[in-house]
Amino acid sequence: MPEARVIPLRPEDDESPGPPSSADWDEQLAGALEFLRGRLTGDYDTDEFGFDADLTDHVLLPALRPLFSRWFRVETQGLDNVPDTGGALVVANHSGTIPVDALMATVALHDEHPASRRLRLLGADLVFQLPVLGSMARKMGTTLACNEDAERLLGAGELVGVFPEGFKGVGKPFSERYTLQRFGRGGFVTAALRTGSPIVPCAIVGAEEIYPMIGNAKTVARLLGLPYFPITPTFPLLGLLGAVPLPSKWFIAFGEPIETASYGPAAADDPMVVFNLTDQVRETIQHSLYRLLLERRSVFS
């Protein structure tokens, strides 16, 4: 038998990341100083909705990335179904007691889509009434969940994210996990029809388990002006520690886009067209959820 040869590994073959070089540190430090200079001098821009790209890229997205990659270990599918350019409406299921799913979808599209697309979320009125969080939502690109804002963003070529279940989805009991709630009156469909934008169904698995909602303190919710006050296995029993989300395994899958341009803008006023498209999107997401649940080995892996 011939003697096996040992081929030495060339430096360029070793793909394992090494420690950051001094040049990397210098670049990061320069970027941080430039960011601080801009904040102190007011040398940064926001759009008409309050979106602050500078703050989002340097503070908000970096704060979310450890949750995305290490805590929830998010895996994405079907990113090629999201167009590289132009307006499109991403429609997803909503869950998790606290809407972390919207934030993880934002990170997925910015960091893993080939075109690094920004997801402009549509939020409920309550989001903007919360101190600090409401302001941060605006700066991250979230705007009011109304047809006028959705159409303006889509018409400007933005990628818009909507969660039609609203509080019915994010605040549903754990016993109803991964069962889609009603999609309202299909307002998101009319916005897509009027602008001729494709609708991209999105299924998110993993968010249901981060805060399993086993009860709802309705009296407390009414006193605080909230749609619900969750009781989970860890909250409020463990206090602030109970606010730490469980490290469930996540999948985010983007389905094939549903085109709307062929219907024409006038179809937005046809109740049957709106109903049929709404139902099609809902059924597509529900089937995708079932598929992803079968692919997931367990809640935490």
Write the layout of secondary structure elements.
Blueprint: H1 22-41, H2 53-71, E1 75-77, E2 88-92, H3 100-112, E3 119-123, H4 125-129, H5 133-139, E4 143-144, H6 147-155, E5 159-162, H7 167-170, H8 187-195, E6 199-205, E7 215-216, H9 218-224, E8 230-231, E9 251-254, H10 271-295
Parallel strand pairs: 1-9, 2-5, 2-6, 3-4, 3-5
Antiparallel strand pairs: 6-9, 7-8
Helix pairs in contact: 2-3, 6-8
List keywords for this structure.
301 residues, alpha/beta, Glycerol-3-phosphate (1)-acyltransferase, seven-stranded mixed beta sheet, 10 helices, 9 strands, 39% helix, globular, disordered N terminus
How would you portray this structure in words?
By secondary structure, the chain is an alpha/beta fold. It contains 10 helices and 9 strands. Helix 2 crosses helix 3 (100-112). The longest helix is centred in the last third of the chain and has 25 residues, at 271-295. It is globular, with a radius of gyration of 22 Å.
What's the helix-strand series? HHEEHEHHEHEHHEEHEEH
What is Rg? 22 Å
Largest sheet: 7 strands, mixed
In total, how many domains does the architecture comprise?
Answer: 1
Helicity, as a percent range: 25-40%
Distance between the terminal alpha carbons, to the nearest Å? 44 Å
The CATH class label is Alpha Beta
* Sequence stretches where pLDDT stays below 50 over 5 or more residues: 1-16
CATH H-level superfamily: Glycerol-3-phosphate (1)-acyltransferase
Secondary-structure content class: alpha/beta
Q: Given the structure, what is the number of helices?
A: 10
Apparent shape? globular
Number of strands: 9
